[in-house]
Amino acid sequence: MQKTVAGTALAGFLAMTMAAAQALTSGSMLNGTLNQNLSSNHAYVGEPVSLSNVSGGGVSGGTLYGYVSSVQKAGQGRPGSIQLHFNRLVTSGSTYTVQTSVTNANVSTKNNTLKEAGGALAGMLVGNAIGKTVFHTGIGGVVGAAGGFLLAKNNRQDVNMPAGSTVQVQVNSVVRRQSHG
To answer: What is the pLDDT of residue 139?
Structure first.
């Protein structure tokens, strides 16, 4: 009888230790799926965002809630960017207040090649016309093409994060708010 009680106590202790080892802690890495489309062209600071199917750090199937914390629309010499911040994690059994940092996200930008070629062609046409009419020389097309290409090359594209993209965050701090059942 004494061996059975000791064995049961040891098994209970090991189960609690294993559960604690899998608990959500600072430093935990979580992966989830973005629930909405985001673009640096249209997103705004404070826009609500969420990740579903969150897993990692002892969590499985949770939802992370947060907002767009910073956004920069692309422009001349300025690439588009979006920064996200998540502050609440809801699982089937608990709600946590968290502070996170996004460590990886699937983002896409358009290819700029067509814009660069169009800029070079437009620059060549304008440069050729100005070179021939104002300076009476044929070199204006070459100078205009180079200028048009460089101008288009420096015109950056917006960042897009389509719904369904995988986002990875690191938990910086965590507080368990409540249990629900």
So the answer is: 56
